[in-house]
Write a structure and sequence with these properties.
The chain is mainly α. Helices cover 77% and strands 0% of the residues. It comes from Candidatus Iainarchaeum sp.
Length: 273
């Protein structure tokens, strides 16, 4: 019960901070994602306009590429927010030299993950409604399947938050690692195939790397979450093995993240004060 109360209190604070200024809140939630996905819409749209009978791998077809991209941008947003939210918050607290207060506060560190995650989840609600609504408009699906998709998005978000906590606390204790984790975010996004089918990574032009990248992507739980979402949305099937794989990471990653956080704090401390 205490965990829930602490999480809700943290979430309430995070939501309050997010909606202080309405215009930036809605532009970040709605306009920025549209700008990000627009180049892919133009590329796919131009390709299928010139080749109306063509079909790329996966679910990238003339009648499905738009919802394919809208589902991808939604997953990418959840990943990006989860990966970066702790980094921005921790660096602000470090600058104000108040990080120790947060760390030494008598709250469960799992409350920190769930509270901040819940706050960010509520803040991204307009984005979720916009893109899932547009995807539903182009390719409707049943209510039960929609609930399954939302659950998988939630699991993807929890994994992203946990990865973000690990990388952010490592960068907090040693800021020299921050650029590396910035590149790591790009790599993870690349092998998560948010905007293209995994078959794009299978290319002979890259030699051995072209054979290795799809294997990495297959073991990436974020890609598996994407795979589940699109399989449910476009095919009406739920790949159980992938669900078990993603669920395992969603359960174990917060525990691992809190352990790493506490371990780094107790052995290294914050550098740069």
């Amino acid at each position: 019960m205490q965990l829930i109360d602490e999480s809700l209190a943290i979430a309430e604070k995070e939501v309050g901070l997010s909606v202080r200024y309405i215009l930036p809140f809605f532009t970040n939630s709605l306009i920025s994602p549209l700008i990000k996905v627009m180049p892919f819409l133009l590329v796919y749209g131009g390709f299928f306009s010139a080749n109306p009978s063509a079909a790329l791998a996966g679910h990238v077809k003339p009648e499905t590429f738009i919802p394919f991209l809208f589902l991808g941008i939604t997953a990418d947003i959840f990943f990006s927010i989860g990966y970066s939210t702790f980094s921005s918050k921790f660096m602000v607290e470090k600058w104000w030299q108040t990080m120790e207060i947060i760390i030494l506060a008598p709250i469960n560190k799992l409350s920190l993950i769930t509270g901040i995650g819940l706050g960010d989840l509520i803040s991204t609600f307009p984005t979720l409604v916009l893109f899932l609504g547009l995807a539903y408009y182009f390719t409707p699906l049943g209510f039960l399947d929609l609930i399954k998709v939302l659950i998988i998005f939630l699991l993807l978000f929890m994994i992203s938050l946990s990865i973000g906590l690990i990388t952010s606390c490592a960068a907090l204790f040693n800021e020299n690692l921050a650029p590396f984790f910035g590149y790591l975010r790009v790599i993870i996004s690349f092998v998560s195939a948010f905007y293209y089918p995994i078959e794009v990574l299978k290319t002979d032009k890259l030699g051995a790397l072209g054979q290795f990248l799809p294997v990495i992507a297959t073991f990436n739980p974020l890609y598996q979450a994407n795979f589940i979402i699109r399989a449910i949305w476009f095919e009406g099937i739920t790949p159980i093995n992938s669900v078990i794989y993603v669920l395992f990471f969603a359960i174990i990653s917060p525990i691992a993240a809190v352990y790493v956080f506490n371990k780094l704090w107790s052995t290294i401390g914050i550098q740069g004060y």
